[in-house]
Amino acid sequence: MNVLIIGGGIIALTAARELKKRGAERVTIVEKGVLGREASFAAAGMLAPNAESNGTGEFHQLCSASNRLFPALAGELLAETGVNIELDLTGTLFVGFTDEDEAEIEERYAIQKKAGVNVVPLSGKDVLALEKNVSGDVRKGLLYPDDGQVENRKLVAALRRYAELNDVVIRENTFIDRLVIEDGVVIGAASGNDVFCADRVIMATGAWAELIPNNGQWGAFGPRPIRGQMIGFAAGDFSFSHVIYSPRGYIVPRADRHVIAGATMEDVGFRAEVTPNGIAAVRKAAEEIAPVLADATMNESWAGLRPFVSDGLPVIGEFPGHKNAFIATGHFRNGILLSPITGRILADLATTGKTEIDITAFSPERFSAAAAGQS
Ligand code: GLY
Predict the structure, then answer these.
(1) Claim: this prediction has a pTM higher than 0.90
(2) For 92-145+224-306, CATH number?
(3) Over pLDDT 90: what percentage of the chain?
(4) Residue located nearest, by CA, to atom 4 of ligand 1
(5) At the fourth CATH level, which superfamily is domain 2-66+152-222+310-374?
(6) What is the mean pLDDT of residues 313-320?
(7) DSSP state of 319
(8) What distance in Å separates the CA atoms of residue 276 and residue 372, rounded to the nearest whole number?
């Protein structure tokens, strides 16, 4: 089988690996820039199905199932590529400092406990016993022992290495401008006069909907970019053991003890750039969690564009009206977390036309069904 993947982020890379493992003869990734340098690079690498959501429903189930794939993935990638993706399963903390935060924590706990989420309620004192550098103003917290993090840039590097070692054809700096369709069947895609023929085409283009031709349906589920600005602090005279969230931001301690902090949520189009206001807001939220960071050296700042679809859920499945074409986008705040399971689903769909993973809630068809219901 010959599979073409449009887009070169974390979803494309995990799909390419899954396809190679299933014996696809030819897998080609065509990326408009450099592999993994957009949202996959900008992300914080949090694996937080519980801290990032209220922990119920199909979306939470998909996130949790993907989270459970990481220990095996980390071990396999180390053996296959020699790259350690720094999987850290210490757990995630959610902490609160105000009356509103306390109310939010209580509500989250009630909902998640009822839904069977592994969540531990913490007093302020409990939080400080786990993390001595959290602000003494902390009032309450939640510990999510099943959440964690991965070094997303190393994950990208490992997957790229896997692709190179396994003869995945990589074409960077190549902007696909159309699908090639014959009698309603997608038989490839093209960049100018350069045509890539394929038995199956996967579109994993993140926020860049314009890389996929508009067939009239695209308007319904086209993603739009939501910018996240981030900062990095050099390792200093402080340490943290967990990823720590508040309702206003988060900090992520890496294995080498540097700390990253995020993130803004801004609907400003394709402007992956930092601004003084954005950086100040991220710093403020980080220092509220851990005042010790006020004296830390900020040595990096960057921004990425999350792909957001109108109902906030990913879009994964057959591309409506296009035989042999599949789509995965809309991963929004959870692209790294959802990459292993999305890669599997895409490889299932491309090789067999179906998947045992329940993706009904994420089907692109949900928008056509909603539109039909309204008319
Ligand atoms: N998952 C963290 C973020 O999107 O900022």
Answers:
(1) yes
(2) 3.30.9.10
(3) 88
(4) 333
(5) FAD/NAD(P)-binding domain (3.50.50.60)
(6) 92
(7) P
(8) 45
Tokens in use for 206?
A: 């993140």
Cβ pair 198, 187 in contact under 8 A: yes
Decide the pairing of beta strands 298-308 and 2-6.
unpaired
CA angle 67, 222, 17 (to 5 degrees): 40
Q: How far is the CA of 195 from the centre of ligand 1 (A)?
A: 36
Q: Tell me how far apart the alpha carbons of residues 126 and 139 are, in angstroms, rounded to a whole number.
A: 10
Beta bridge partners of 253: 259
Distance CA 358, CA 121 (A): 31
Tell me how far apart the alpha carbons of residues 97 and 83 are, in angstroms, rounded to a whole number. 39
Distant-in-sequence, close-in-space partners of 280: CB < 8 Å, separation ≥ 6: none
Per-domain residue ranges for the chain? Answer: 2-66+152-222+310-374, 92-145+224-306
Tell whether the model's pLDDT for residue 143 goes beyond 60: yes
Q: What are the pLDDT digits (tens) for 5-14?
A: 999 999 999 9
Atom 5 of ligand 1, residue of closest alpha carbon: 263
Ligand 1 geometric centre to CA of 75 (Å) = 25
| Cβ(262) – ligand 1 distance below 6 Å | yes
What is the spatial distance between Cα 225 and Cα 332, in angstroms, rounded to a whole number? 9
For residue 179, the CA-to-ligand 1 centroid distance in Å is 31
Three-class secondary structure of residue 285 per DSSP: helix
Between 217 and 37, residue with greater pLDDT: 37
